[in-house]
Automatic annotation (TrEMBL):
Pfam families: 2-Hacid_dh (PF00389), 2-Hacid_dh_C (PF02826)
Protein name listed in UniProt: Glyoxylate reductase/hydroxypyruvate reductase
Domain D-isomer specific 2-hydroxyacid dehydrogenase catalytic as annotated: residue spans: 20-314
Record-linked CDD domains: GDH
Source organism: Acrobeloides nanus
Gene Ontology molecular-function annotations: glyoxylate reductase (NADPH) activity; hydroxypyruvate reductase (NADH) activity; NAD binding
Family from the record: Belongs to the D-isomer specific 2-hydroxyacid dehydrogenase family.
Length: 319
């Protein structure tokens, strides 16, 4: 069957090869570095049939009102907290996403970020640029060892569980977790949120952003954490109150943090958190390998094409 060539499709992600979509109509691809502003997005989406978006694009009532022809959304992400699902449901929109493609790669990154944070790798790299900084002394660039510690997970879905498996060979004394539901046959022990916070030497956040988890890690929580604990967030920035983690790191109560996600994201230039030696900030790149990104792209394109042509999406979120 000949493909309908009349669709208009907006792709908000720069740099991805999306030629397959051109067989179905006109593709407008955002070509600037950085994200379109909400205003730019409203303008771009207004006569589109389909939207290829990612986690930084807010898909809310205002945007949906501005796009009366929109039928299909393919988000280039596994997370969907940026999409107002209720509003989409009311309009009968189809939404596809990219579960599975990011699990292993995000877990690998989480382990890397934990190790880099615990062993101060970026700081050591920076210091090595001048031999004066790295004159040997007994504790030069010393950090925290994983063996015999307690590793805690806030949220233990697919990414957290994969991270746990990857960390097991480092032989921590114990894994603990707090999650919406308890896991069967799990290496980690379920504990209350309070126990998780008080007992973890490494606290890793892999929970989804929901109204319940927004702002969950605030000054009271950081105060309850062990002195010298390490905090890693590869979930979503708004789970953590930015000023409060800054204070906990600045005072030395937390030994270090590795944050792949922040609030706001990205942090403005010169933000105080970026100046802390004991904080590694990366720009939300847990899923950034060529393999994963290509697979996410292929899946998002297939979801959109299937959605537009009346076939079941490969990974539907709403259909
Ligand atoms: O796919 C997502 O939702 C991500 O956050 C990628 O890191």
């Amino acid at each position: 069957m000949a493909a309908n060539k009349n669709f208009k499709i907006l792709v908000t992600v720069t740099g991805l090869p999306v030629d397959r979509l051109r067989e179905f109509g006109t593709v407008v691809q955002w070509n600037e570095l950085g994200n379109p502003t909400s205003q730019e997005l409203l303008e771009l989406v207004k006569d589109c049939d389909a939207l290829f978006c990612h986690g930084s694009n807010k898909i809310d009532k205002e945007l949906l009102d501005a796009a009366p022809k929109l039928k299909v959304i393919g988000t280039y992400s596994v997370g969907y907290n940026h999409i107002d699902l209720e509003e989409c449901k009311k309009r009968g929109l189809k939404i596809g996403y990219t579960p599975g493609e990011t699990t292993e790669v995000a877990a690998e990154f989480g382990v890397g970020l934990l190790l880099a944070t615990a062993r101060r790798i970026p700081e050591a790299n920076e210091a090595s640029k001048d031999p004066v900084n790295v004159r040997f002394h007994g504790y030069l660039m010393s950090g925290k060892q994983i063996m015999d510690t307690t590793i805690g997970f806030f949220g233990l879905g697919a990414i957290g569980s994969s991270m746990l498996e990857k960390l097991a060979p480092f032989r921590p004394a114990r894994f603990i977790y707090h999650n919406r539901s308890r896991k069967e046959n799990c290496l980690a022990e379920y504990v209350s949120f309070d126990e998780l916070v008080k007992e973890s030497d490494f606290l890793i956040v892999t929970a989804a952003l929901t109204p319940e988890t927004t702002g969950k890690f605030d000054k009271d929580v950081f105060a309850k954490m062990k002195k010298g604990a390490i905090f890693v967030n590869i979930s979503r920035g708004p789970l953590v109150k930015t000023e409060d983690i800054y204070d906990a790191l600045k005072s030395g109560h937390l030994e270090a943090a590795g944050l792949d996600v922040t609030d706001p994201e990205p942090l403005p230039k010169g933000h105080p958190l970026l100046a802390l030696k004991n904080c590694i900030v990366t720009p939300h790149i847990a899923s950034a390998t060529y393999r994963a990104r290509n697979r996410m792209n292929d899946l998002t394109i297939a979801n959109i094409i299937n959605g537009l042509t009346g076939k079941p999406m490969l990974a539907p979120l709403l259909e």
